[in-house]
Amino acid sequence: MIDRQPAKTLPTIEGFLLFLINPFFRYWWAALTGCASILAVYITPSSGITLNGATMMSVTFVAFALVFLTLSVLNQGWQLYMGRLVGLQVTSFERNRDMPEGWVFVLVGGIDLAVGTVIDIHKKTGAAEVPFSLVRIASRNSRGAYQATPIGKINPTHIKEHSAGGLRPEDLIVRTSVDLQRIKEVVNDLG
Fold this sequence. Notes:
Distance between the termini: 25 Å
Helix content: 40-55%
Structural class: alpha+beta
Oligomer: single chain
Largest sheet: 6 strands, antiparallel
Radius of gyration: 27 Å
Strand order of the largest sheet: 1-2-5-4-3-6
Number of strands: 6
């Protein structure tokens, strides 16, 4: 199978800084310049420290720019943090005659995995989680989602449940770390 992944660019400091401040210039620039202009007229003191209008406008503009830039960085940082917590999720799994294994799992998430990586998929049954399938990342599709194929056989009970429509992708949990005992179980089933 040929892996047709889109070419990735290496992360750079410039790219990171642009990522952080992009929402600032995209969303808040109009509000920032409007507020700075209007507040400069009303905040300029008539007595005490005397600043001309241009200086007061510049100070107000810089103060608001720093506030909005701080909020922008916090917002982008929160989105990155939440994206990393999501992990991988199964969005679909189905029979596929084009795959030698007969099944394909489609996975999405905020984790970058190499083709060939082995991950473990478990099924929720009430409060418990039972092993479903050990899978290998085979490729990425045109939308950037991972396509994985099972290693070994899937339990016939799970296949019947899937055929009857009782097993949904939301019922499956992806674990990126695989326990050695789990690998031994799958190897014993293969032999």
